[in-house]
Batch of 3 targets.
Target 1
Amino acid sequence: MAAVEQDVSGLRLRQFNWRNDRLAVLSFQYEIYETNFPGCRVDEEFLEEYSFNLREAVRNSSENLLVLEEGGEVVGFIWMSLLSTLVDSCVGYVKNIYVAPHLRSRGYGQRLLEAADEWFRSNGATKATLDASVGNQRAVSLYQYAGYEITRYRMEKHYSDADD
């Protein structure tokens, strides 16, 4: 668990509270998914499943969620997880990250990633990973600035109904 931080701009980084913060985090998913995943539509079913996943994450000691708060309003968040793979026994994984548009390019994404690094390291992770959309160059630049390197490519092949 990360300590609550406050800075001079009045922003605060604190632990996610499912009851109080869930609706704000759900509202961010429209921009996150519809912008980064062409054709994705965030609908009621999507939000119900995401809400369920948030609830499960809060109960799971290998997951952690922090929110960025400004004047009592949630304006960003990061969702972290600890994974075990065939190659690494403990890897930190950033499942989702968001900063409100009016706060971007002011170091808050970096702050969220630093909090993730702190949590990952304190829980024995040997490295941190995340996925980024090729079209989101602003996010890719942030991740590279934070020390992430491109290590592999995820490739997709799309099928049309005509292929059947």
Target 2
Amino acid sequence: MGSEGDRKDMSNEERRTLRKAALEGGEAAREAFRALWRGYWPRVLGFCRSWLGPGGEDAEDAAAEILIRAFDKLGRYDPDRPFEPWLFALSSRYLASCERSGKRRAEREQRTYAPETAPDEANRVEREDELERMKRAIGELDPRERAMLELSYVEGLDSTAIGAAMGLAPGTVRWKLSAIRDKLKALMEAEHG
């Protein structure tokens, strides 16, 4: 199914094998679940952190619940279609449901998000300031906007796959990503003064 660092979707054969093993039950199903977990845990966890915030047990709990639900719903999955958009759509629906029900609202105001960087010494202070402004700006985005950024810039999905995951047309995804980038730029400029 691919390693943790591998960002490629499963092949048709891998999708069919995973679905078949999951539906067979027994040891084949247990191995299929382990393969799903090994192959997608880091990516689903990263997606959950982009939605819920980078730390804490909430993202881990949500990622675990999503993978369990994905495994349980493999019977409904069409192996002729790409797996990742299906998985991220399921993830989006679960996280949106949690958001609506208020289960994850307590940490919302404290969220931060930062790509890992290693600034050079000459620009360290300026880069740290910019990074902090970026974290705060991303923290002000709504969960769906953060999720779109995660799918595009971290997961490397194109607008078609993001649209399938989030229930949007590819053109709408491109438009929304552009609007999100503009919003981030405005938020950062407003803070910088």
Target 3
Amino acid sequence: MASDEPGPGQKYAIQARRHIAALRRARPGITIEIRWCPAHKGIAGNEKADEWAKEAAGQPGPYRLLPRSLANLKRGISEKKWVEARRWAGGGTSKSKYRMPVSQMPDGAVAGSTKRLASRYYQLKTGHARTGQYPHWAKVRPTAQCWWCQCPAQTRDHLFKVCPEWKLQQKVLWAEVQQETRRWKSRSKIRDLLADGRCG
């Protein structure tokens, strides 16, 4: 051998060097030789032994598993993941398998708008808008009080119907709602307004 220095990741070479050092300490005059052994290929009997070893490695048994490096474990997981991904990609699917339910279809009212506007719209529609009520429910604010008019609960209905800070905007909004739906604000709930396609 050109060198007996272990390379990176050579776990067993490092262990062998430790054993050699221990032997030299125990018996100072000992002569130790490191010899290279050729691979199994082309040597009678060794190829069969190699075949049996590979066969045994692929079968579960009572033997103790040898430690594996983190890199080896990650590689095994990655290889398994890609095998499963190729199998999934090659498999067929029925037409109805990935059909989106009507309840999850994007709302036509905001289909062509900006992400920011669509985000605000869906927050209002689901009751997760940053009105006083939702942060209070999420324990971010101590109360649900309106920060414009000090009303005890700042809800969607409060902002769209009665908050004095938005009187002009409310007037325009409800005039258009009445024109489209023939309903005035006293007979409309905001959740119904946001669900009505005519109010988009």
